[in-house]
Design goal:
19 helices; Growth Hormone, Chain: A; mainly alpha
Length: 405
């Protein structure tokens, strides 16, 4: 199965470049909120606001990116989006204060232009009958860097301090971004014919676009909106909680994130295979139940061991079921691919990304504000409640197509 999936040049090129990007990103990303707070002078509310800016940018760029990918092809949009994405770490490297992070956040949000094309080219390149297992194999390979990156980053920060440790990996991120642009331009093969001659679609969401969506996709959008808001409440806080509230060292946090990556890697392929055999919906429910429960359990953690157990439990649920409370993941993407024809996939993925961004963006600000004004535990508790509501809606309302799995 793995050999069949990676014999496709698109999957191979995307897997290698994504893995390289993730390896370096995981060296600094878990420690970035702490760096912004202590080195760049940002409050937790400001950290949430900056994340909200990035999320809101998807409102402007993800749906247009999906439509453009269906119209002009996946490859072109992916290459341009990767180039744009590389600019953010370049600004991070030279930032003397948190205000500099705002334009970087705007650029990072703009890079979401290519995410629908990215998801669509993977779906286009996987064998239809084994799509869930194919996504699982892809996630297994791309999760491998999560086993190494956080540990390397944690030890580098322990050794050299936050300033040097963070900048070391952010600088490497820029170099890797340039390599990604070149490799994707040379190796990626277009999977859909250009449709420049057909009727132009609006590049912003319209009622007609929404009404044309299948009913199951409409429900999934609602679930993604609620779940993403829940997830964004604690998106920037999960690692900060370990460092500031539980007083874990960067090396300890790095080891925990390495264990999370190992869990995700080991279970991604079995999760995809279970999706093909027993249905997408059951798998997705595992992630959408385990993930919010884990957020509540974080507030009960008292040190390294208990926090470690909660994070690994969450990683196991996400690996099997998808991306937890947000849209995405092998089973989620496979279910969309089962329902939506290839020529509309990028548009649908862009629509979901855009509509979820409308509601999810304020979640980061609210989570930071609750941390600063009430307590660090409240955002996690609220996230758990809202996440479980989205899981219930998904289980009751989403209908899986028969005969596809």
């Amino acid at each position: 199965m793995v050999k069949d999936v990676f014999s496709n040049r698109n999957i191979l090129a995307i897997s290698i470049t994504t893995s390289l990007w993730s390896l370096v990103q995981q060296g600094w990303n878990p420690f970035w909120p702490k760096y912004m707070k202590d080195s760049l002078g940002a409050s937790v509310t400001i950290i949430g606001l900056i994340t909200a800016i990035t999320t809101a940018e998807r409102l402007l760029f993800q749906l247009p990116g999906g439509i453009l990918a269906d119209r002009y092809g996946r490859k072109k949009i992916i290459v341009y989006g990767t180039l744009i994405r590389t600019l953010s770490p370049l600004i991070y490297f030279f930032a003397p204060s948190w205000e500099w992070i705002i334009p970087a956040a705007l650029i990072n949000g703009m890079a979401s232009l290519y995410m629908p094309a990215f998801s669509a080219i993977i779906a286009d390149s996987l064998p239809e009958k084994r799509r869930g297992a194919g996504y699982g194999a892809y996630n297994t390979i791309t999760n491998l860097p999560m086993m190494l990156g956080p540990m390397l980053g944690g030890f580098a920060i322990e050794l050299y301090g936050y300033e040097v440790g963070i900048k070391l990996f952010v600088g490497l991120q820029v170099v890797v971004g340039v390599i990604m642009v070149v490799v994707r331009q040379i190796i990626l093969k277009e999977t859909i014919e250009s449709k420049e001659h057909v009727e132009r679609k609006s590049l912003i969401p319209t009622k007609q676009m929404y009404h044309e969506l299948p009913e199951t996709i409409k429900v999934m959008i609602v679930v993604a909106i609620i779940g993403s808001f829940s997830s964004r409440l604690i998106f920037d806080l999960i690692n900060l909680y370990a460092l500031d509230v539980l007083a874990l060292s960067p090396a300890q946090l790095g080891l925990i994130n390495t264990a999370v990556g190992a869990t995700s890697t080991v279970l991604a392929l079995p999760g995809g295979m279970l999706s093909d055999r027993y249905g997408r919906k059951n798998n997705i429910m595992i992630g959408r139940t385990v993930s919010p429960i884990s957020q509540g359990l974080v507030t009960l953690a008292s040190g390294f061991n208990s926090y470690f157990a909660v994070r690994v439990f969450n990683a196991a649920g996400i690996a099997i079921g998808g991306s937890g409370m947000e849209a995405g993941g092998p089973s989620w993407n496979a279910l969309i691919a089962d329902i939506v024809p290839p020529e509309k996939r990028a548009t649908v993925l862009g629509t979901i990304g855009t509509l979820t961004a409308v509601v999810a963006a304020p979640g980061s600000v609210l989570g930071g504000w609750l941390w600063d004004t009430v307590s660090p535990q409240v955002p996690f508790q609220l996230s758990m409640v809202i996440g479980l509501v989205s899981a219930i809606i998904f289980w009751v309302k989403v209908k899986e197509p028969r005969g596809e799995t």
